[in-house]
Amino acid sequence: MREYIEKRAIIMGQYILDKGATVRETAKNFGISKSTVHKDVTERLFEINPVLAKEVKNILDKNKSERHIRGGMATKLKYISKDEKNVG
């Protein structure tokens, strides 16, 4: 594996661990695709640093389990802002 890919996977893994970030947030922060982030931290990182990979996996699993809550909040805010526009 190329060295820069290994470094990128470690840096992104550490970012997710430090910030509790989602794959989407990490991709936006690093300016790369969600697919690349996901592949780096779920597949490549296990080959490079299994301990970090397991910690990152725990964060990603937690984020996945909370995903429906974040989606519901986004929908709620969307309709609240629509109501405010219609009232004013």
UniProtKB/TrEMBL annotation:
GO molecular function annotations of the record: DNA binding; DNA-binding transcription factor activity
DNA-binding as UniProt keyword: yes
Pfam families per the UniProt record, alphabetical: SpoIIID
Keywords: DNA-binding, Transcription, Transcription regulation
PROSITE patterns: HTH_DEOR_1
NCBIfam families, per the entry: spore_III_D
Protein name (record): Stage III sporulation protein D
